[in-house]
Fold this sequence. Notes:
The complex is a heterodimer.
Chain A: E1 3-12, E2 15-25, E3 30-34, H1 41-48, E4 56-61, E5 64-65, H2 70-77, E6 80-83, H3 94-104, H4 109-122, H5 138-150, E7 156-160, H6 168-183, E8 188-193, H7 196-202, E9 205-210, E10 213-215, E11 222-229, E12 235-240, E13 243-247, E14 253-259, E15 265-268, E16 278-288, E17 292-298, E18 302-308, H8 309-314, E19 322-326, E20 332-334
Chain B: H1 2-17, H2 20-53, H3 59-69, H4 74-85, H5 100-125, H6 128-136, H7 141-151, H8 153-169, H9 172-178, H10 188-197, H11 201-230
Helix pairs in contact in B: 1-11, 2-5, 2-8, 3-5, 4-5, 4-9, 5-8, 5-9, 6-7, 8-11, 10-11
Amino acid sequence: xxxxxxxxxxxxxxxxxxxxxxxxxxxxxxxxxxxxxxxxxxxxxxxxxxxxxxxxxxxxxxxxxxxxxxxxxxxxxxxxxxxxxxxxxxxxxxxxxxxxxxxxxxxxxxxxxxxxxxxxxxxxxxxxxxxxxxxxxxxxxxxxxxxxxxxxxxxxxxxxxxxxxxxxxxxxxxxxxxxxxxxxxxxxxxxxxxxxxxxxxxxxxxxxxxxxxxxxxxxxxxxxxxxxxxxxxxxxxxxxxxxxxxxxxxxxxxxxxxxxxxxxxxxxxxxxxxxxxxxxxxxxxxxxxxxxxxxxxxxxxxxxxxxxxxxxxxxxxxxxxxxxxxxxxxxxxxx
Amino acid sequence: xxxxxxxxxxxxxxxxxxxxxxxxxxxxxxxxxxxxxxxxxxxxxxxxxxxxxxxxxxxxxxxxxxxxxxxxxxxxxxxxxxxxxxxxxxxxxxxxxxxxxxxxxxxxxxxxxxxxxxxxxxxxxxxxxxxxxxxxxxxxxxxxxxxxxxxxxxxxxxxxxxxxxxxxxxxxxxxxxxxxxxxxxxxxxxxxxxxxxxxxxxxxxxxxxxxxxxxxxxxxxxxxxxxxxxx
Lengths: 335, 231
């Protein structure tokens, strides 16, 4: 086990932003940390990279219990490197940025040079070695930041939403790099994302976070809305003017709801009967995820539904097709 | 208008003739101002850095006091230092009064708040991600401070330039603690004040133009350094 977390919490200005009773992260794997914005992903990554002390709780790294005193942490930080969501490069050349971690580790000049070009090759940025780091695009900056972290030969690399601010070309490149560094270099990778597809595609394990707590995988399709009651006493959550979802709750006012994608039924619109739990939409994308097919459906807002392969074969839907979604009451949780 | 034209011509002639007295005045000004700027920078930059970097009780009050000291009149500093270095003062036996050292002491007191507050502002403006990046890459606290310092270097250099401009142009401290002794403590500003008292307006303005030219040259030099560093 590489990380063992027990009763970890982080409180900011009286608000508990992270509350993890227990979490175990195994060596050598790629972990995807999945959750919506504000779920505590960045805070957890900063704690795991020893940049931020938790308010309470215990972390065991390797077999060492982490003492969050500055002297102890410096040694650990030489093994665990974090790349921020919007990394900042030092105002110098790309080469010198990548060299930073090696210089402070007193790596000899010739070896430094070899490592720098090796990692720049790995991220496809060799030809930018002499370029001014501040003149790079967002995607290039992200790749150099990954190279700068890799140059330190870390055991663990933590990446906070590594593809959230980059174009598709860089996204593909970065996803390739993440796979390569885990397979070729045996580096333990933990990356945060709010993209379910990316998490599924790249990671061996997914840790779901919601409101600062580990959650089951059902916390997808999270929407905010206002609870209203109709003349018959039925309750709805109004996501926007034209989209109301029937819910069972005692709560009132603004709430967040989560719709479990596995429990959503998708049928061609022509075969569907009207009902409280029916939503009409159009299939935007279909993704094969092994056991399941993920359908992204536009019902005014994007909805994600997971269909088992059997279910999909029985009632296949096509991209662009009009469909009806059935969200049974048990699929909706007011959180 | 004639006064300005005559002064400009006199300034050019003075510079062209390399008048020994004028050269001595300029050299004293440069020596004293450079020394006080250097000493104040050696104290003010680390102090500003420490205040900006560390969280401690009374931090905001310290910054408020430093900001207040920016408005400290040169005459007050002159009187204050005079009380210490005059014959009856506790540093009287050191014979500092009416020496270049006394001017330097006064000027250092004048510009330490400038260097410190500008450094605090420069460091505080630096993106927090620089510190985090350095730390996660394994830097020690000192190495992290070095990274932040490097990123703030242009703003800190601006603090040094502003301080130099302040001391080379001040007259109160130089007059009160230096005494305007010809060849020893006569600076450009005290010489200007003297020429004005004598009614030699043309020479006073000419010296003022020389002072501005020197300030311009110094700024040009620092600008060149900044340009090289940015390239």
